[in-house]
Amino acid sequence: MSYISGARLVADEQVRIASTKMDGIGPKKAIQVRYRLGISGNIKIKELNKYQIDQIEQMIGQDHVVHWELKRGERADIERLISISCYRGIRHQDGLPLRGQRTHTNARTCRKLIRK
């Protein structure tokens, strides 16, 4: 079991599939990272040596926004919406759906917090 950028990677998966488990890395970015490092397509995580894992972590850390940085950015965006008191910010603050969904009969889980 390897950890890269805070994500736990399963040892029996291919590198391109396992690296998509990291927040912010999709299939296309996973293939790009693998290609730039010269790692073959069918190699599995357990077959990588420590140097290759360090290279992957370094490249992802330099070029891509992942894991905590990504979550921090999302939270900052939500805080900005709340601070300017726009419609979406108010809905975030109240815990209601943001994108025009019906709340009269649906959205029970988010409305449960309001009723108490």
TrEMBL record:
InterPro entries: Rbsml_uS13_C (IPR027437), Ribosomal_uS13 (IPR001892), Ribosomal_uS13-like_H2TH (IPR010979), Ribosomal_uS13_CS (IPR018269). One of its GO terms (molecular function) is rRNA binding. Keywords: Mitochondrion, Ribonucleoprotein, Ribosomal protein, RNA-binding, rRNA-binding. It comes from the Eukaryota. GO terms for cellular component: mitochondrion; small ribosomal subunit. The keyword Mitochondrion applies. It is found in: Mitochondrion. The keyword S-adenosyl-L-methionine does not apply. Transmembrane segments: none annotated. One of its GO terms (biological process) is translation. Its main location: mitochondrion. Located at the top of the head of the small subunit, it contacts several helices of the 18S rRNA. Part of the small ribosomal subunit. Belongs to the universal ribosomal protein uS13 family. This is Small ribosomal subunit protein uS13m. The lineage of its organism: Eukaryota, Viridiplantae, Streptophyta, Embryophyta, Tracheophyta.
